[in-house]
Amino acid sequence: MGAFVELDVDLDDVLAGLDPEQRAVAEAVRGPVCVLAGAGTGKTRAITHRIAYAVRSGVVEAQSVLAVTFTTRAAGELRQRLRRLGTPGVQARTFHAAALRQLTYFWPRVIGGDPPSVIESKLPLLADAGRSLRRNLDRSELRDVASEIEWAKATQIGPEDYAQAAAKAGRTPPIPAEEVFRLYDAYERLRRERHLVDFETILELTAAVMTEHREVAAEIRRQYRYFVVDEYQDVNPLQKLLLDTWLGGRDDLCVVGDPNQTIYSFTGATPRYLTNFPVEHPDTALIRLVRDYRSTPQVVSLANRVLDRARTPHKMTLVAQRPDGPEPVFTEYDDEVAEAQGVARAAAGLIRSGVPSREIAVLFRVNAQSEVYEQAFTEAGIPYLLRGADRFFERPEVRQAVVLLRGAARSASAGDDLVSTAHGVLSGIGLTAQPPGGGRAREKWESLKALADLAEELATGGADLPAFVAELERRAAEQHAPAVEGVTLASLHAAKGLEWDAVFLAGVTDGMLPIVYAETPEQIEEERRLLYVGITRARVHLCVSWALARSPGGRRSRRPSRFLDGLMGRAAARGPSPERGGRGGRGGDGGRGEHGERRERRTVAAPVSCRVCAKTLMAAAEQKLGRCATCPADYDEGLLAALRSWRADAAKEAKVPTYVVFTDVTLQAIAERAPLSERDLMAIPGIGRVKLDRYGEAVLRLCRAAGNQTEDL
Known about the structure:
The strands form four sheets. Strands 13-14-12-15-16-11-17 form a seven-stranded parallel β-sheet. Strands 3-2-6-7-1-8 form a six-stranded parallel β-sheet, with helices on both faces. It is about 45% helix and about 10% strand. The chain is of the alpha/beta class. It is globular and about 75 Å long. The protein starts with 11 loop residues before the first helix and ends with a helix. It has 29 helices and 17 strands.
């Protein structure tokens, strides 16, 4: 790679704001480097600053860096952060995206003909394989068999070896192992006949092409000399094979991960590549990140105590950096219906207290648990969205909307209004003024509403229809879904990598967490880590609950998860049930006050009303302002001018459009409300934790300065 070259650049800004351990990561510019990073400790910040420091100090050229992530969204975030650090040109991709790019490029040269087509889902081809064997599988069976095939391919097990390998690994196939073998074999035969590749085959073929064609390996290795791999605890044997092939014996590699967040071993992932990294690379610089910037000390304490009992040699005790918050709440309910209603009521209370609904999540062990929560939130009038099914831009309604909007953009006239045109297109495929009840119809409506809100937001920054479509295409490429205003309902696995102000961990019973089919000590420990992941998703509010019976009136035979033993302090609160005069919820007073009188319970979140004329506000921009667009505004014009000047400077520094910092409507709302605290600022729709952390201090400084000037006058 060449010797270290000190360039005439100021590197202090790259290291500014890093804590000592993060700075150690950034300054460890040559590999091998292993970063053990606990939840919420700023690992993405550390590795992006490391890459920027290495590039700007001349250690490596940006084009020679390959940063590998596990999601397209994470890769997009990495690229955005690097651009803000003045380091564009770094390749940040998933394993599959990087491999597919290389395979497609070299295919005509070394194999000939057109490259194979990529299948996004195994299910259609697997269904055809089943029919060829006169075996019709329902959708649930297809998903389960597809998961078995993915595990086999990730661990480099062929069809003929599946049955023996599955038995050795302690797996329980969804159908007899011999049938899985036949389906797997037929699937692979059809895939080859139809000139198709799935995600695992992409990795396999890329490694094979490099191994068999030295000139290809040499060219790729000349291009990429500097590797960073995030979430290294989730690497499987096939990904490790490809990574080793890319490296070709070199060791300029930085891996980042947390063995305590290993929750995907059922897919073939293994933490041993992370934990054994210093053994594999004896000269490794090993750095631990333990300062938790995400969660309050109360949340961090509970997370640490969950892992205190874990059977692992790689414990890391997190050290909270945030101010104190409320203690976690533990609540027991009579049945799942009462639990869901209680969670919905508690979420409504948080929303009324100022927590945005998009900053609340309900997490559960399996997706099947979502139904009762969908019903409870629908009855309570609280918007929600399901996460963990299709990715946003892969949903059928979103694909259809983007196609129609693209067509509208091609035929649009210069004076066409973005908001009205977008609403017209979206209304034609199902967007209505009011949301439907629940289920798939509600999910479709939420997707279309998110697109409509994004159009309104961009329009306030001056975007037209072509610019809106271009923004959608950029976000689709980076899997940067628009913000959806609603409580998130998700499985614990789908929640990994995300965070919210308030988290409800629901259904935390033995048999569900740990799941009933977790039998070996290793499987039980992975379930414990899953609870740890759920706890560490919460920034401030954490509520843990369980139900003693499945249905109202059912036998109350369940018990709280064994992982909670000794962690709850005093006895958990009892949620009221119909037998005790309530309908489920927090507390044990049966819905009555301290003197026995019936307490009014409000279960529907209040609509947003204009603070001037009291009219109900429907448009997103009006809800953000808190008034009708036609009602008079009372604000400090000097403050608005100062905010606009600051926004222009911030956008220029970050090399982004001004509306990415804050839209005009958001600035107007800030000027009208003149917030003086973080809580006041976050009460403005559109300002979440990320915006607060990035711009809150500067905005509040301007607002306080304006307030002082007013007092002086």
